Structure prediction request, 275 residues.
Amino acid sequence: MTNPTELLKQRYGVDAFDPEIFWSECISTLLSHRSVRAYRDKPLPPGTLETLVAAAQSAATSSNLQTWSVVAVEELQRKEKLAQLANNQVHIRQCPLFLVWLADLARLTYIAESRGLPHEGLDYLEMFLMAVVDAALAAQNAVIAAESLGLGTVYIGAMRNRPEEVAQVLGLPPHVFAVFGLCVGYPDPTANIVVKPRLPQSVVLHRETYHLAEQENGIAFYNQLMQDFYNSQQMNVPSDSDWSEHSVKRVASAGSLSGRDRLREALQNLGFLLD
Ligand SMILES: Cc1cc2nc3c(=O)[nH]c(=O)nc-3n(C[C@H](O)[C@H](O)[C@H](O)COP(=O)(O)O)c2cc1C
Prediction:
């Protein structure tokens, strides 16, 4: 197990707090997370998919409704099509296993209809949100399981760029929506894949009540930390642009949403009324 002090230093860029109090192997795995965008050409051991799905299914789920599903894509051609729909991200083609996590209200619709029972509740935004939360919790359990096995992953939110076409490629019925994809595979050992620092806890952790203006110092600290990080990684970020500016650009206009500004319309086309 890597030293907790070192893990915290990687995550926050400074000695954050004394970790000797309460720690576990699982927390070490969590703090070691980094997204992997370069994979070895090596298949996963048999049974890996089923193990990851068992981990995913062990996540909590609202009212035990289990309103999520996952499509495992291994065929090169299908990965290729999905990569094209996700802004041509090469890691989707390269990874041996691509998991698409679904908000799934089709199963409950089907059960209700096959018993002749009403299901208007499924038409509400709340149920869609519930299914998205369920899918995210399940996926993150799979990520942790994968990372604990020495595998790497990266989420692919770009699955939402062109939702109707993704639904077609995966044969999704109405009331099913691809929330995000997840590349899974062995990290390429020649790629420099490092832990990315996060905001100081003073910014995200609020005690008793929420405080906005007090976050300023922590954000300024993080801007500097990330500037150093971008430089050390030789990342293509303009030298006068810091994390704040970079983040605000991501939300500057409808055009910055890579097609997802029409998500409501896409969801309605996929059978979600969102009342
Ligand atoms: C829901 C979600 C969607 C994401 N979509 C993409 C994506 O489409 N492409 C990509 O390369 N990374 C994607 N990421 C990865 C983030 O960029 C990454 O988690 C973030 O930069 C922090 O880096 P780290 O995961 O290495 O700590 C996504 C992450 C999440 C949680």
Notes: The domain at 34-192 is CATH 3.40.109.10 (NADH Oxidase).
